[in-house]
Design brief:
This protein is mostly helical. It contains nine helices and no strands. 74% of the residues lie in helices and 0% in strands. The longest helix is centred in the first third of the chain and has 27 residues. The N and C termini lie far apart (49 Å).
Length: 189
């Protein structure tokens, strides 16, 4: 029972941290603001997350769990990617937080740099596996799945930035469907 309450409290803290980071950015967010939002003292919050950096990484890992339903395990399909883009279009605050943290993480000393570096290595590997399943060893344009995977990740993230900046001009799900049409038809099963 105590463990379940602890997990609930942890989830509550992660949601509050995501909100505070979305409002203020990582550098402007404080442990005190997150603690206040969930009715804890800063010392109480430190019981769950010993540092601001630990909280940030937990928020990012939780966000990935939401996106992949607990981890894709290499079972991504094109339809899932399209659904993920549509899902992200319904939650601009989370996409904004992720995008802001991704942008901040390119600096050498940012605490999320290692998370994003590892995340993109895994995403490229999983996308290459998905593309291989869909297209075989070569896509219709001649690229291998490994060469196309970083481009696919770049399109997804780049569309998010454009959509966040001008949602009236950029229909993110439709633009992603257009990109998938550019890839060409999958190989027949």
């Amino acid at each position: 029972m105590a463990r379940a309450r602890s997990e609930e409290r942890r989830a509550e803290i992660l949601r509050a941290a995501l909100e505070v980071i979305a409002e203020r950015g990582y550098r402007g967010a404080s442990l005190g603001a997150v603690a206040e939002r969930v009715g804890l003292t800063q010392q109480g919050l430190l019981h769950y997350f010993p540092t601001k950096e630990a909280l940030l990484v937990a928020v990012l890992e939780e966000r990935d769990q939401w996106d992949t339903g607990g981890g894709s395990g290499g079972s991504w399909r094109m339809e899932l990617l399209g659904s993920l883009v549509e899902y992200n279009a319904m939650r601009p605050g989370i996409v904004q937080t992720f995008s802001a943290l991704l942008g901040e993480s390119v600096t050498e000393d940012h605490p999320a740099r290692e998370f994003f570096t590892q995340r993109y290595a895994q995403v490229r590997q999983e996308l290459a596996g998905m593309l291989r399943t869909e297209y075989g060893e070569k896509l219709p344009g001649g690229l291998t799945p490994e060469r196309a995977a970083p481009l696919l990740a770049a399109v997804m993230d780049g569309l998010q930035y454009q959509w966040l900046l001008d949602p009236e001009a950029v229909d993110m799900p439709e633009a992603f469907r257009d990109f998938l049409r550019l890839l060409g038809p999958a190989r027949p099963e």
